[in-house]
Amino acid sequence: MMISNKTEPGASAKLMSKNSDICHSDLAVPPGEYLEEVISEIGVDKTELAAKLGLSAVEMAALLAGNMPLTQAVAARLEKTTSVPANIWLGLESEYRLALTREAKDES
Fold first, then answer.
1. Count of CB atoms situated within 10 Å of the CB of 46
2. CA triple 31-37-43, angle to 5 deg
3. What's phi and psi for 30, nearest 5 deg?
4. Domain 28-107 carries which CATH code?
5. What radius of gyration do the chain's Cα atoms show?
6. Residues 79, 100: Cα–Cα separation, whole Å
7. Between 3 and which of 15, 33, 35, 108 could a Cys-Cys bridge form, CB atoms 3.0 to 4.6 Å apart?
8. Where in the chain are the domains?
9. Beta-strand (E) ranges in the chain?
């Protein structure tokens, strides 16, 4: 079963399922997008967050863009800084990497 769902003009997310109970998003969204929303809400800027996470400015930018994996250590530090549980950050990272793998497989 394949369902197309418009998320915004010009963008679509495909949902695929082998049975009607399980759906997987094929839209790869890095956890950094959610992180940017969270830090905006709590009033922390990217430079301050990078320092709290022990990351350089370059590493912080790579993390936000999804070019650097979000590790367990970073997830634990994010939990302390944002009050969002580490398992949520790790779940977002896992789903993002899985979606990238599916995209790469579809292109090959």
1. 17
2. 130
3. -65, 145
4. 1.10.260.40
5. 16
6. 25
7. 15
8. 28-107
9. 2-8, 11-16, 24-25
